[in-house]
Write a structure and sequence with these properties.
By secondary structure, the protein is α/β, with parallel strands linked by helices. Helices cover about 35% and strands about 20% of the residues. It is built from 18 helices and 22 strands. The chain has helices at about 15-25, 40-45, 65, 85-95, 130-150, 190-200, 270-275, 315-330, 355, 360-380, 400-405, 435-440, 445-450, 460-465, 475-490, 490-500, 505-525, 530-535; strands at about 5-10, 30-35, 50-55, 70-75, 100-105, 115-120, 205-210, 215-225, 235-240, 240-245, 250-260, 270, 295-300, 305-310, 335-340, 345-350, 385-390, 395, 410, 415-420, 455, 470. Helix 1 (about 15-25) links the parallel strand 1 (about 5-10) and strand 2 (about 30-35). It catalyses: a 4-saturated-(3S)-3-hydroxyacyl-CoA = a (3E)-enoyl-CoA + H2O; a (3S)-3-hydroxyacyl-CoA = a (2E)-enoyl-CoA + H2O.
Length: about 550
């Protein structure tokens, strides 16, 4: 009989979804329950119908009466020997060169159970959310599948921790990272502060005082050396980012959140958050070059690469406008193929709900953001000079999936999770999805994707035609370059371009129909977009399953 799996998770986040998809694809019937306390956990296991429990992301202790009855395999984001609730935070804070993930049995003492499987990997110097959604998630899926195979075998014997080899020799029990541990001192070196911000990004942030306002800091990048200003001074701004002087250099900061105890707050563009706190941001010098180049164009022979990295995959109005300008530039080059690729942990998740919330005019800004992302999709759909390839090495949701679907060819790594729907955030959707999705998967499958709001793995996306291919494991960039080279070959290029010319679709009519429905969603709030958006950005309830985005 097939091993039946119950997934217990604190949130239906990307790792939870990816684990469920991977376990189900391995042939095991799988059910996911989102739990927030011991009562929820007990209720989840009462229904039986499973053989083993796995916990890819669980922040609550499993009650003894549950783990004593059922084998419960917990993913711990640390190597063998590491214990504690903030393992990954400490590793990033201390800039550890090597880290790991371990699948272990739940016992009374947290993280002390026998070991089923473990992986180690070089730890990139990136923000926690990026690390978690890439190398940690990859290792976690490998560990879970290996653990399930072992648990289904005749031995069924995990290794006691005392006997397990330690690939990271200094791994140890660590305390919770307290608020003081996350506090920024601006006189410290910029790289020291950067590692502190990375360790709390995207939650709970790093505490600081900027312009007299207590804030939580996210989305930081190194700035200039020797800024000639006192530590903590705001010395520059670019778009919505600010530059803050540190002890030896400066940091660019893209996102802030008011640090409040008496009312809820959410992340927002740094300039807007400071302005709302009364800081005179308009008096700060505005620089042309910002914290980093979110959008880059490069060329290799007949192939152009338009690469982008948007925080949490969220594309606000200004970012959509910049991406459109970059695409327009790329489309007039004398190349044959144009590759659109993410360089961060997300391809795209569509519009930026946090920027919408901080705009002062949420309904109007949502509308402007939609029109801006529509313009990007239209440019891709109508590109008549090059074969367009969407190369996805990160997750995508809502309008981000549809943006990719606008390309002539869509490819992805096997790790990508797709959420091609809008309903969980109270929107009917735009981005020409009523044309691009049925064109790829057929009308019935498109309706199912939009209405059932279920995640899809890359293999499943190929099966229904939503994407064209899954890259071989471990060589995505090289494989995409080879594919682009094949598309640039005269015969194949001519065939693809000829097929593009045969399309006869009135995009103006498609967009007008979608926007009529969206106007009712946004301005009449017929599907509770306002409430659902605020629940998402203020984290009042479990997040929609990547159906919408924020920062």
């Amino acid at each position: 009989m097939k091993q039946r799996v119950l997934i217990l998770a604190s949130a239906n986040n990307g790792l939870t979804q990816r684990a469920a998809l991977a376990i189900r694809r391995s042939g095991r019937p799988t059910r996911t329950e989102i739990v927030h306390c011991a009562t929820d956990i007990r209720a989840a296991v009462e229904s039986n119908g499973f053989d083993i429990v796995v916990c890819p992301y669980l922040t609550r202790r499993i009650p003894a009466d549950v783990h004593s009855k059922w084998t419960c395999i917990v993913v711990h984001p640390g190597p063998v020997g590491d214990r504690g609730p903030h393992s990954l935070d400490w590793a990033i804070r201390e800039r550890q060169p090597l880290w790991g993930v371990t699948a272990l049995t739940a016992v009374e003492e947290m993280d002390a159970g026998p070991i089923w499987s473990t992986r180690v990997f070089p730890l990139p110097a990136e923000r926690k959310s990026a690390v978690y959604n890439t190398v940690v998630a990859d290792a976690a899926i490998e560990c879970l599948l290996e653990a399930l195979d072992k648990a289904a075998g005749p031995a069924r014997s995990p290794i006691p921790q005392a006997e397990a080899p330690r690939a990271v020799a200094h791994a140890r029990t660590r305390p919770a990272m307290r608020r003081n541990d996350r506090a920024i001192c601006w006189s410290d070196d910029a790289e020291e502060i950067l590692s502190l911000v990375h360790a709390g990004d995207g939650s709970p942030g790093a505490g600081a005082i900027i312009g007299g306002a207590p804030v939580l800091v996210y989305d930081a990048f190194l700035g200039q050396v020797d800024p000639q200003a006192p530590p903590g001074a705001v010395i520059g701004r670019s778009d919505q980012a600010i530059e803050v002087a540190c002890g030896d250099a400066s940091l660019w900061i893209g996102r802030l959140q008011p640090s409040t105890v008496d009312r809820p707050s959410c992340k927002g563009p740094a300039v807007r958050v400071l302005a709302a706190a009364g800081f005179p941001v308009q008096s700060i010098p505005c620089e042309r070059t910002g914290p980093c180049r979110e959008i880059r164009y490069r060329r290799e022979g007949d192939i152009g690469y338009l690469e982008f990295d948007f925080y949490n995959g969220a594309m606000d109005t200004a970012r959509c406008d910049r991406l459109l300008a970059a695409f327009t530039h790329a489309a007039v080059q004398d190349t044959k193929v144009l590759v659109l690729a993410n360089t961060g942990p997300y391809f795209s998740n569509g519009i930026d709900l946090n920027a919408v919330e901080w705009s002062g005019d949420p309904e109007g800004e949502t509308w402007r953001n939609l029109l801006a992302i529509n313009n990007v999709c239209r440019a891709i759909l109508t590109c008549s000079t090059q074969v367009t390839v969407a190369a996805m090495s990160g997750n995508a949701g809502a309008g981000g999936v549809v943006l990719a679907s606008s390309a002539d060819l869509v490819v992805a790594t096997e790790a990508v999770v797709f959420n091609p729907h809008y309903r969980t955030i109270g929107l009917s959707g735009s981005e020409f999805h009523t044309y691009t999705l049925p064109r790829r998967v057929g009308s019935a499958s498109a309706r199912r994707l939009l209405n059932e709001c279920q995640p899809l793995d890359a293999a499943g996306a190929v099966e229904i035609g939503m994407i064209d291919a899954v890259a071989p494991s471990g060589r995505f960039g090289e494989w995409v370059a080879e594919l682009a080279g094949e598309c640039a070959h005269p015969a194949r290029w001519a065939a693809i371009m000829a097929a593009k010319r045969t399309r006869s679709i009135d995009l103006n009519s498609v967009e007008a129909a979608e926007l009529r429905r969206m106007a009712q969603d946004i301005f009449l709030d017929r599907n509770e977009f306002r409430r659902k958006r605020q629940e998402f950005v203020y984290k009042k309830s479990p997040h929609p399953s990547a159906a919408a985005t924020g920062s």
